[in-house]
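Onboarding guide, step 5: your first structure request.
Type a short instruction followed by the sequence, for example:

Predict the 3D structure of this protein.
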Amino acid sequence: MRTLFKQIVVSILTAEAKFLLSRKKPYIIAVTGSVGKTSMKDAIFAMVKNRTSARKSEKSFNSEIGIPLTVLGLPNAWNSPIGWLKNIVDGAFIALCARQYPELLVIEAGVDRPGDMKQLVSWLRPDIAVITRLPDVPVHVEYFSSPEAVSAEKLLLAEGLKPEGALIFNHDDVRLQEYVKGIRRQAVGYGRDMPTHVTASADSTYYHDNAPAGFACTISHLGEAHPVRLPGVLGGHYAYTVAGAIAVALHRGMTLPEAVAATAEIAPPPGRMRIISGIKGTTLIDDTYNSSPTAATAALEAMREVKYAKRKIVVLGDMLELGKYSAREHERIGELVPDCADMLVTVGIRSQRTAEAALAHGMSEKYVLQYEEAVKAGKELQGLIQPGDVILVKGSQGIRAERIIEELMAEPDRAGELLVRQDDAWQER
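The system replies with structure tokens like these:
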């Protein structure tokens, strides 16, 4: 009954959203990929919001239910049947009667199951499709026949572009390079180091009082180059976020100096390599929104580059929804840890393989700790960390690794502001 009710609600809200789009005809920028979608969506919105009336997908509203809610401007009713019925009524009124509506929508488009993207582009046709990256082992792969099948599903977003639409893609992704060769659409590349339409280079971490303070890089386009800084975040993958968002801004008619100036509006979302002050004079790197092999690798690479830390501690929770690839990918991440950290803490059954691989590659048993759940790990870490430590915390959403951050952050009363999954529906789980 619950599944049937959801199907009915999704069908009605989708029909309302489709009708509303046909009435208002907003400019649509849709973002997909297997990593970096939410950061890219938020960055693009920050770049365009002061130049036109705009709306973005809230948080990670990127599903069959989240996208219609974004189009209609409605909240998530979570487990409230009455709330969903109210949404249906309100959605009908908005679809039929709304006068004011955003001129531009920035939509995050996720894929959980085969057919998701095909269904989306049957009613939502973007003016710009942004594809972030198609890694070897993407999250949700357990529901598909292969990683290639996940990539093919996501690429359907580009197939759904309006006739005059443009594809903005990660030029460093070999799969996307090959795909672009076969399409007859305008394609704009962005990347890191390799020359393309918009290139980010010389990326680095900048510091304050010997603690990581933010990300910096140089953006180049048509022989012109400008420095960019993003305070409060860590990781070279933000080079792609900045370059991709600027590529969108340039396509929308902004000059490079205007686009670079607009990056000051970017506020990276919670749980994506956010720098948070920890207890005992420590620095926390909060990457707890979700995890995948590609994202975990990028986080460890960022930790390896951190300077001035007394110790580097990585807390890694299970990576979920990897299916048959799970065991090997957890082992592969463990193999990387000894080169990036002084201490490893794992959370979850699957991550036991991460610990075993780290031990096999030279890490001492004294510095490898294993836990079954997040809160206990966070509480015990309180007694282990020391001033000057830099602590990365990462795990899939089901691990609830943000609870570790809450145990270690210097200002736990700001958890609702700084951390992921702080609304009532998540707190009750």
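Each response can be followed by summary notes, for example: The chain has a mean pLDDT of 95.
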